[in-house]
Amino acid sequence: MRRLIFFSLILFSNFIYSQNLLFAEPRNPIRAKNGMVVSANELASKVGIQILKRGGNAIDAAVAVGFALAVTYPVAGNIGGGGFMIIHTKDGKSIAIDFREVAPAAATRNMFLDSDGNFLPDLSQVGIKSAGVPGSVSGLLYALKKYGTMKIEDVIQPAINMAEIGFPLPYSTANSIKYTLDDFSQFPSSMKIFSKNGEAYQEGEIFKQPDLAFVLNEIKNFGVDGFYKGKVAELIVDQQNKMGGLITLDDLANYKTIEREVVRGSYNNFEIISMPPSSSGGVALIQLLNILENFSFKENEWGSSNYIHTLVEAMKYVYADRAVHLGDSDFYNVPIDWLTSKAYAKKIADKIKNSATPSDSIFAGSPDSFEGENTTHYSVYDKDGNAVSVTTTINSGYGSKLVVEGAGFLLNNEMDDFSSKPNTPNQFGLIGSEANSIEPGKRMLSSMTPTIVLHNEKPFLILGSPGGSTIITVVLQVILNIIEFNMDIEQAVYSPRIHHQWKPDKLYFEKFGLSKDVIENLKSMGHIIGNERVLGIVEAIMIDQKNKIIFGVTDKRGAGKVEGY
Ligand code: DON
To answer: What pLDDT score does 182 carry?
Structure first.
């Protein structure tokens, strides 16, 4: 009998290898037949899967996960921030929903500069003025109304329950709150929520948020108006007035979610759909893939000096373009078609030689000369084939660190994503220019890259990541790992990554990402090696459409959870 099993196994594995499968058979990721939710928090993923099991579609589940994360994952989950949602419906429609924060009407270009013109990062990164007008509640409810099937009460009740009854704090959240207590301590409203009279919460302690439950109930009862008008809006604006903030009742009432055309690209025979401006993510991702399509890598070249060198050179050109050409396309003419064209990518590819080009000698291209921990991502797939990819943020971990008094939620510090002063780096070291200058009502440029990869017009990959400026290169490498190097989804997500963003001229890498001889080779090619750091936290789903299997992976770099059924 044993021998029989043994031989059957051999026969089976030969069968697998002889099938020339589209992608490697995953070893370990969670599998499911019907639906899947992957998010940065276990309770939120469980809420999402319950919605799917009760017959909700992927959009219903995504909205429920969004509200749940606002309760159970306060470092990044939010109602005081903004984000982006990419949907691919079962009928083949692709949709981009932009619920990015906007600058208040009273915002001015130089609001974060002192009288000598020096940039004041403390002002743009912490406290009352760092916050843009939040978009999350508007965006989630927009998606629910237009593409969901359930009522607000069905998708928001789990979040309300967890805020009211509380939940045991997981290790990672208890720790990150503890390490942020110093920052919170400038704001009594934040200490009230995130400490027990000044003392840190411990792992496993029950964390209740009655003020937040009140706000979620207002949203349940009054929809968008429950947040952007009425009692909650008044709480937000009272605090703004008291502390010298700029957000007014009109700013809140005027907030609008915008549905946009997705940006589209292709890599080999895969189609990429991702987020257009006000994120730079989709454009930059497609530009990178277009450039890299001009090179061919063998499977055993992963991690080699040649592969890393080519990635890094492509990244430098793309981030140079980002700094000049990308901003809110409702305010600035972003040349999306040119940036994402194969022809422009070919021109860049032709410039990539065997040695490193110093960032100082790379400049953004010009369309005129062209002939022609903290953000969070979650991915959802349902039994009918709807796919949803959402990245949402309050920018830094715990955003502005400022909780709205009486409302129990944190305001974002997204204003720091604007380019406050040309060529002066923000917290992610990103520089920008006119395209991303502060203007009233404008959306600050993002790097978030919620993405869906299609194969034969059906969802193949749903993925995204936090990580500020590194989000784009993180998503890129996971896609390449799968399509170019035939890794299974778990290996693709777990493998070490590198990052370069043109300025500073430094190649960042993860532990075990670059071996000593590769580092030496890269140095001899002229690359400047930066420090080791963690790059991204990917939450991904891969669908084997032929065999109807859904695979999910939550990044080992985070503490998320895959739920499938
Ligand atoms: O929108 C952006 O690009 C940034 N505000 C994202 C911030 C982020 O990912 C922080 N997480 N580590």
So the answer is: 97
Q: How confident is the model at residue 5 (pLDDT cuts 50, 70, 90)?
A: very low
| Per-residue pLDDT tens digits for 144-203 | 999 999 999 999 999 999 999 999 999 999 999 999 999 999 999 999 999 999 999 999
Cα-to-centroid distance, 165 and ligand 1 (Å): 30
Same-domain check for residues 400 and 292: no
Q: Single out the catalytic residue among 248, 257, 310, 375.
A: 375
- Using alpha carbons, list the distances in angstroms from residue 314 to 303, 363, 417: 16, 13, 23
Atom 10, ligand 1: residue with shortest CA distance: 374
Q: Do 245 and 350 share a domain, yes or no?
A: no
CA gap 330, 148 in Å, rounded:
27
Does residue 424 form part of some domain? no
% of the chain beyond a pLDDT of 70: 94
Q: What is the pLDDT of residues 122-153, one digit of tens each?
A: 999 999 999 999 999 999 999 999 999 999 99
* pLDDT of res. 373: 66
Residues 362 and 335 in one domain: yes
Average pLDDT of 404-430?
97
Using CB distances shorter than 6 Å, the residues near ligand 1 are 373-375, 393, 395, 414, 417, 446-448, 466-468, 471
Please give the distance, rounded to the nearest whole angstrom, from the Cα atom of residue 565 to the centre of ligand 1.
Answer: 31
Same domain? 94 vs 151: yes
Choose which residue among 180, 428, 475, 535 to substitute to test ligand 1 binding: the one with the highest number of ligand atoms within 8 A of its C-beta.
428
- For residue 249, the enclosing domain spans 35-259+374-418
Q: Whose CA is nearest to atom 6 of ligand 1?
A: 468
- Answer whether residue 17 shows pLDDT above 50: no
554 catalytic residue (yes or no): no
96 & 74 share domain: yes
Does residue 365 contact residue 321 with C-beta atoms inside 8 Å? Answer: yes
Residues 283 and 179 in one domain: no
Total domains in the fold of the chain? 2
Residues 391 and 285 in one domain: no
Is residue 73's pLDDT more than 80?
yes
Ligand 1 mean position, distance from CA 417 (Å): 8
State whether 273 and 381 are in the same domain: no
Select from 484, 462, 476 the least CA-distant residue to 542. 462
Q: What is the CATH number of the domain that holds 483?
A: 3.60.20.40
Ligand 1, atom 8: closest residue by C-alpha: 468
- Nearest alpha carbon to residue 402 among 40, 55, 126: 126
Q: What is the 3-state secondary structure (H, E, C) of 217-276?
A: HHHHHHCCHHHHCHHHHHHHHHHHHHHCCCCCHHHHHHCCCEEECCEEEEECCEEEEECC
